[in-house]
Amino acid sequence: MLIIECPFCGPRNETEFHYGGQAHVAYPEDPYALSDKEWAEYLFYRENPKGEYAERWSHSAGCRKWFNAIRDTRTYEISATYKAGESRPTSTSAGA
Ligand SMILES: [Zn+2]
């Protein structure tokens, strides 16, 4: 069982949360200026790192708010959670 710390509610069981994909994917400034390929890359292409990954999560069975988490894709360890709109914290693990 994974314990995830909601930045609004504190630590809760993973079953209260819903995964929302990669964090910090910025909406294009001018979507009409993009080619179909660039638009498809914005919609569908995501990083797939081995190690720390910034993700969006929703506390869907709690406060229902979205927030970001830094999760290691090798160990599932979440090293930080922070509110949506806040900048990504600097790396907290020495091995990544
Ligand atoms: Zn919450």
Automatic annotation (TrEMBL):
Keywords: Oxidoreductase
Protein name (database record): Sarcosine oxidase subunit delta
GO terms of biological process kind: tetrahydrofolate metabolic process
Classification lineage: Bacteria, Bacillati, Actinomycetota, Actinomycetes, Micrococcales
InterPro entries: SoxD, SoxD_sf
Single GO term (MF): sarcosine oxidase activity
Pfam assignment, any one: SoxD
Organism: Neomicrococcus aestuarii
EC number in record: 1.5.3.1
